[in-house]
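Hello Y.,

Per our agreement to keep a running log of every chain we model this quarter, I'm adding this entry. I've kept the format consistent with earlier entries: sequence first, then predicted structure.
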Amino acid sequence: MYQQIRKIFSLSLQQLPKVPVPPLEQTMSEYLRALKPIVAAHQYERTKNIVKQFSVSPGPKLHQYLSDKREAEDNWVSS
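Predicted structure for the entry above:
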């Protein structure tokens, strides 16, 4: 019985859509939005500058890596 349940569960997982990789810009803006209420103004401005630099390099390269990993694997989040 355990094997049957495991097989059904495995087949169900194969039918699930892949977890999307959100756009880099969305990830960065959500990060800043979440951070703003919990840090001091000077820390937020410093972080905003770091995020801006990250959006130029290495952000796009890392985002492409995640996008490629999503295409190659069933679950890029936990692998």
